[in-house]
Design a protein that fits this description.
Largest sheet of chain A: 6 strands, mixed
Structural class of chain B: mainly beta
Helix content of chain A: under 10%
Distance between the termini of chain B: 36 Å
Strand content of chain B: over 45%
Radius of gyration of chain A: 14 Å
Helix content of chain B: under 10%
Largest sheet of chain B: 7 strands, mixed
Number of strands of chain B: 11
Oligomer: heterodimer
Number of strands of chain A: 12
Order of helices and strands of chain B: EEEEEEEEEEE
Order of helices and strands of chain A: EEEEEEEEEEEE
């Protein structure tokens, strides 16, 4: 079974700083997908970014980018020029390729952006 | 585009009562998922459907939980009888997945916060 581990329960940075959230996963699969979801205080789960394991290029979405290290099974999220609105829980998630569409989530990292 | 719609947004009930949570997926999506989120266990997949058919219900905690999807635009999650330990936020999500599972993004509803007293 796949597992996802987020080793940082909480993080706090100043507005405009850059912050990196860690995620590692365990799988024997070669093809899979990785996601970062954001959950602000409203509790809505919002997709931040996704990465296909077969792609070597790291995914980017505006201020959000990932560092995908397949051999190390690491998938960190970098937030540049952090904003107050980035304050949220961030969840890393894994999905196996082929067949089941099941997402396996990490425990989450609570990120606070301070003014 | 309306997104995934869930109702009610909040539900407070007493132990032993029946609870029904409702979900309307995004139009055109063929996968529907029910998740539960608690502090202790995080986000757990309870059950998911493909083309209205339940595919995997291994996450359903016990027989008190049941889910149905009578058509492509509606699903229910029912708890009968409810217990205090069922208190959680229940999310519905939907996605469009081509055959073979291409890892399509799941879009989540706003969740239903359930409190069982």
């Amino acid at each position: 079974a796949q597992t996802v581990t987020q080793s940082q329960p909480e993080m706090s940075v100043q507005e405009a700083e850059t912050v990196t959230l860690s995620c590692t996963y365990d799988t024997s699969e070669n093809n899979y997908y990785l996601f970062w979801y954001k959950q602000p205080p409203s509790r809505q789960m919002i997709l931040v970014i996704r990465q296909e394991a077969y792609k070597q290029q790291n995914a980017t979405e505006n201020r959000f980018s990932v560092n995908f290290q397949k051999a190390a099974k690491s998938f960190s999220l970098k937030i540049s020029d952090s904003q107050l609105g980035d304050t949220a829980m961030y969840f890393c998630a894994f999905m196996k390729h082929g067949g089941a569409q099941k997402l396996v989530f990490g425990q989450g990292t609570r990120l606070t952006i301070n003014p | 585009d309306a997104g995934v719609i869930q109702s009610p947004r909040h539900e407070v009930t007493e132990m032993g009562q029946e609870v029904t949570l409702r979900c309307k997926p995004i139009s055109g999506h063929d996968y529907l998922f029910w998740y539960r989120q608690t502090m202790m266990r995080g986000l757990e997949l309870l059950i998911y459907f493909n083309n209205n058919v339940p595919i995997d219900d291994s996450g359903m905690p016990e027989d008190r939980f049941s889910a149905k999807m009578p058509n492509a635009s509606f699903s229910t999650l029912k708890i009968q009888p409810s217990e205090p330990r069922d208190s959680a936020v229940y999310f519905c999500a939907s996605s469009w997945g081509s055959s073979g599972g291409m890892g399509e993004t799941q879009y989540f509803g706003p969740g239903t916060r359930l409190l069982v007293l």
